[in-house]
Amino acid sequence: MIQRFTYRFDELTPAQLYQILALRSEVFVVEQQCIYQDLDNLDQEAIHLLGIDDSNNLVSYARILAPGVVYPEYAIGRVIVAQSHRGTGEGHKLMRYCMDVIESLAGKVPIRISAQAHLEQFYQTHRFKFTGKSYLEDGIPHIEMIYNPNLAS
Question: CA-CA distance, 114 to 137, in Å (whole number)?
Fold first, then answer.
């Protein structure tokens, strides 16, 4: 069973921060063979969402940024599921959790993401729509997507 936790940066323990950075490095740098600066000075501004398994391992993670930090809207980023838990629905549970946290903070508001292009269909299942903006980020095709709860699905 996966337990979900939400922390501000200053609430994270050193062990939790280490697990977060290790998982992000494992997937975004090593697995995706992408050399990039993961530490972007946004973690300090973020709300961190952790999925922890029964053995106390971090198996999923995302961060939420408030409006005005990156986009005019809330933003969800660094969405990640450990390889051991892919294909289990954990990614969808994590996204629903992210959206629930934002709703609890601000109500039903628009949310913007920068998604790896190959994950467009995944995010579409959560009602995110492609904005028409696509770009290369760190050598990986990305697209900008937005969730607008005020529009019909």
Answer: 9
Q: In this predicted structure, which of 31-40, 71-80, 123-132 has the lowest mean pLDDT?
A: 31-40
C-alpha 8 chain-centroid distance: 15
Structural domains present in the chain:
3-147 (3.40.630.30)
Q: Which residues are CB-contacts of 120 (< 8 A; sequence separation ≥ 6)?
A: 130, 143, 145
Tell me the per-residue pLDDT of 53-69, one tens digit each, with 9 for 90 and over.
999 999 999 999 999 99
Tokens of 100: 């629930």
76 by Cβ neighbours in 10 Å (0-12 / 13-18 / 19+) ranks as buried
What is the pTM for the complete model shown? 0.94
Distances (CA, A) of 79 to 11, 75, 84, 129: 20, 11, 15, 17
Distance CA 144, CA 129 (A): 8
Residue 66 CB contacts under 8 Å (≥ 6 apart), including other chains: 45, 74
Helix (H, G, I), strand (E, B) or coil at 79: strand
